[in-house]
């Protein structure tokens, strides 16, 4: 008997799950519900569209409802919102926001891809200034319209994570004066403090003001922002980038288990504690690949991998999801900053005994023109050589190094085993011994 699968949410994980299911089963009934006007878009590209680096808005969309319907045979229902789940009857109560009509739909299998929403802090006086957040296409369009029509000359970004620093570059590229306000002691909290200091200096060198250990206390006038420290900054508009929260209301009302992060708990096949209900993407509390502790990191790769795992399990050919490292990278003006695995602060918090190898090298042979500095930090267990994680920062080849490091961790290669990774060499591209080869050689003297 043909299964009927309903997928709630169609941005990244949901749309990918639907596509993977169709590849594996040509006859399955697949219904996709999306409560907004947009689906299957590259949210990570939105800062670059706002910064006018990406000119074509439509290039952010990987598919349309029509293409998913005609090419993949999916039943795509836009502006349809699932309101409640009746697990006993395997029924959804759905609202069609176009007609304002409610109806019910039964399912055999349900996939929750409800994503996450921006955290919007309650700030006194916020309505006195144009304030934006960046999570959906509607958010992007609203901010783009303001940038084009009002032409603000300054912006305060509240939050110094990846979105905050990426937007700092893109708004600066429009000629705006930019300030970044971060409540913690460093930018991009998942990277090591030393790497964060390099990012901060680079932002300062490019004209961005950075305020650490500080927060926004109130908006005291149309362009006057008061910080917790009492400092005042001026801005024509504001971007709130303080984090996200999983859209878990539907799951919680259905009695599904949530983790401490608010994400839905799932097993290795992405099933909730109801075996007929799966979850994928930013709404999930996943596990860490290294220590299997709960981990909630909103990144594209885990969502796409989880979608594949779900499709394989539903179609009877299961493969497990082994967890995530949280491998991430950002461009901050000319600087590229990346991390994978457990960072220094997290290792200390969890009580790990570890050592760190720090290596500064060049992006390619030093004698070949254009070589740039690259800084590598790798954390490891000095007893077993197990690699816990690390960060890479520089102007070139950062993505290559972090991907090699992530691959080594997934493959169980030890810190000294990095010596043996044979990478390509020619002067315009690298050095005879790669940066991570050198980390492996340096680690020999640090082993127990």
UniProtKB/TrEMBL annotation:
Domain Pyridine nucleotide-disulphide oxidoreductase dimerisation: 329-430
Cofactor: FAD
Keywords: FAD, Flavoprotein, Oxidoreductase, Redox-active center
The FAD/NAD(P)-binding domain, residue ranges: 3-295
Gene Ontology MF terms in the entry: CoA-disulfide reductase (NADPH) activity
Keyword Oxidoreductase (UniProt): yes
InterPro entries given in the database record: FAD-bd_OxRdtase (IPR050260), FAD/NAD-bd_sf (IPR036188), FAD/NAD-binding_dom (IPR023753), FAD/NAD-linked_Rdtase_dimer_sf (IPR016156), Pyr_nucl-diS_OxRdtase_dimer (IPR004099)
Gene3D superfamilies according to UniProt: FAD/NAD(P)-binding domain (3.50.50.60)
E.C. number: 1.8.1.14
EC class name: oxidoreductase
One Pfam family hit: Pyr_redox_2
Family: Belongs to the class-III pyridine nucleotide-disulfide oxidoreductase family.
Name of this protein: CoA-disulfide reductase
Protein's organism: Rossellomorea marisflavi
């Amino acid at each position: 008997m043909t299964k009927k699968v309903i997928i709630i949410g169609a941005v990244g994980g949901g749309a990918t799950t639907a596509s993977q299911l169709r590849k594996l089963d040509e006859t399955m009934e697949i219904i996709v519900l999306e409560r907004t006007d947009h689906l299957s878009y590259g949210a990570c590209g939105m800062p670059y569209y706002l910064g006018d680096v990406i000119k074509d808005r439509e290039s952010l969309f990987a598919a349309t409802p029509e293409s998913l319907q005609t090419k993949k045979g999916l039943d795509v229902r836009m502006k349809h919102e699932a309101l409640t789940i009746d697990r006993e009857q395997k029924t959804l109560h759905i609202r069609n926001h176009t007609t304002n009509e409610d109806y019910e739909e039964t399912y055999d299998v349900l996939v929750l891809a409800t994503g996450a929403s921006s955290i919007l802090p309650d700030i006194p006086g916020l309505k006195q200034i144009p304030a934006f957040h960046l999570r959906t296409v509607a958010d992007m369009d609203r901010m783009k319209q303001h940038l084009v029509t009002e032409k603000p000359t300054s912006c305060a970004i509240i939050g110094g994570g990846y979105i905050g620093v990426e937007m700092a570059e893109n708004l600066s590229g429009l000629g705006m004066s930019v300030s970044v306000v971060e409540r913690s002691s460093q930018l991009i909290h998942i990277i090591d403090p030393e790497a964060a200091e390099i990012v901060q200096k680079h932002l300062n060198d490019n004209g961005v003001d950075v305020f650490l250990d500080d927060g926004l206390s109130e908006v005291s006038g149309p362009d006057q922002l008061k910080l917790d420290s009492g400092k005042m900054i001026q801005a024509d508009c504001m971007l709130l980038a303080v984090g996200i929260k999983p859209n878990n209301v539907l799951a919680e009302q259905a009695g599904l288990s949530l983790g401490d992060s608010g994400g839905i708990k799932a097993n290795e096949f992405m099933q909730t504690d109801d075996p007929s209900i799966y979850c994928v993407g930013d709404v999930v509390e996943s596990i860490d690949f290294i220590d299997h502790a709960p981990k909630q990191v909103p990144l594209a790769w885990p969502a796409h991998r989880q979608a594949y795992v779900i499709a394989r399990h539903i179609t009877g050919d299961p493969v497990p999801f082994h967890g995530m490292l949280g491998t991430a990278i950002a461009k901050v003006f000319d600087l590229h900053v990346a991390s994978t695995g457990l960072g220094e602060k997290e290792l200390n918090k969890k009580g790990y005994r570890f050592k760190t190898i720090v290596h500064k090298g060049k992006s390619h042979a030093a004698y070949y023109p254009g070589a740039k500095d690259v800084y590598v930090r790798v954390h490891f267990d000095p007893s077993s050589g197990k690699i816990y994680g690390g960060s890479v920062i520089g102007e070139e080849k950062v993505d290559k190094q972090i991907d090699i490091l992530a691959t080594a961790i997934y493959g169980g290669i030890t810190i000294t085993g990095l010596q043996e990774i044979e990478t390509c060499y020619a002067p315009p591209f690298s050095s005879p011994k790669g940066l991570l080869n050198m980390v492996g050689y340096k680690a020999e003297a640090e082993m127990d």
